[in-house]
Design goal:
The protein has 320 residues and is of the alpha+beta class. The protein contains six helices and 14 strands. The chain is elongated.
């Protein structure tokens, strides 16, 4: 009599999760790439994103290769993987353990190596999993896999596994480095795309600048801020010209006491959004580009501080 002892969700863990990961990351990568106006930089950005996401996909597939469809039969364990199906006799089982740390508490069956699955197989046990202690299938498998002399599995410890060229910790560390590097590269591409758009900005096409007093927060609409509209041609031109020659500057852990959200409305295009910040230095205004609720890039400008004082802050001083 045969009985399925692995979870019905095994196929989802092995195939569904990688597919969902691939779809979500591909959608996110394409959405970010479409925000870059330059085609050449779009391609470079997509290549970097594909390398990072493909590395993550390989890790998920590598991790899922241990999870098998397992059926209990009189001859042993009928095991099915990605491409291999075979029966593992009870005599090939060296030990049986259950993880208490991993989600789902998978059961790991250590093998003696004389089979098509290498040193171990793992599966999510079927049915309700107890909060404490082992799943009943663990004790059942240990009873079935007793040695011919009647001794239990724990009386004879399994052989030490052979040294592997890659460890799980090393793979996780490498994956973390790749992800961080990919995020850093993506930020650099966003900054370059922003610089190119500022350089190509035509003052004649700027129709209006809206300045909101306050800092951008998730869930808070700009309608809740104090707003100042600027439409004078001379002030619009001055803003664009000074923005193009602003100094690159990225302060380390700055302390700002006053914040503004500046929307530049462009004829026939989407708007550009900036964060203007004031610190204790009375000369500069510090500028960050805003996309959604994330900020990147760093500029500072003396003329734009004067522009902000003249058009928005009026006659107020920094101490007011």
């Amino acid at each position: 009599m045969t009985r399925k002892i692995s979870s019905r969700w095994t196929s989802f863990y092995k195939i569904g999760v990688p597919c969902l990961y691939l779809i979500s990351t591909a959608t996110q990568g394409c959405a970010l790439a479409l925000r870059i106006p330059d085609l050449e930089k779009q391609v470079a950005f997509l290549v970097c994103i594909c390398v990072c996401y493909f590395t993550g996909l390989l890790f998920i597939l590598w991790f899922g290769r241990f999870y098998k469809h397992v059926t209990l039969s009189p001859e042993g364990l009928a095991v099915t993987g990605y491409f291999v199906s075979d029966v593992v006799p009870f005599s090939c089982i060296a030990d049986i353990k259950q993880s208490i740390w991993m989600a789902g508490r998978p059961v790991c069956v250590l093998l003696d190596g004389h089979n098509r699955f290498g040193g171990k197989i793992a599966f999510q046990p079927r049915g309700t999993r107890p909060m404490r202690g082992e799943h009943p299938i663990v004790a059942e498998l240990r009873q079935l896999a007793r040695h011919e002399d009647g001794s239990s599995l724990h009386a004879t410890p399994p052989p030490l596994p052979a040294t592997k060229p890659f460890s799980l910790k090393g793979i996780l560390a490498s994956l973390g480095v790749v992800v961080i590097l990919g995020m850093h590269i993506a930020d650099r591409f966003r900054e370059h795309a922003f610089d190119d758009r500022v350089a190509a900005l035509d003052p004649e096409r700027v129709t209006q600048i809206d300045v909101y007093r306050g800092q951008r927060y998730v869930g808070k609409s700009l309608d809740d801020y104090e707003k100042k509209e600027i439409r004078g041609p001379a002030e619009l031109r001055s803003f664009v010209e000074q923005l193009k020659v602003a100094d690159e500057y990225d302060p380390s852990h700055p302390e700002y006491y006053e914040h503004y959200v500046v929307l530049v409305l462009i004829e026939g295009e989407d708007r550009m959004e900036f964060g203007f910040c004031l610190s204790e230095n009375p000369q500069y205004v510090y500028i960050r580009c805003i996309k959604g609720f994330s900020a990147f890039g760093g500029l500072r400008s003396v003329p734009l501080r004067e522009w902000l004082d003249r058009n928005v802050r009026g006659a107020r001083t920094d101490g007011d």
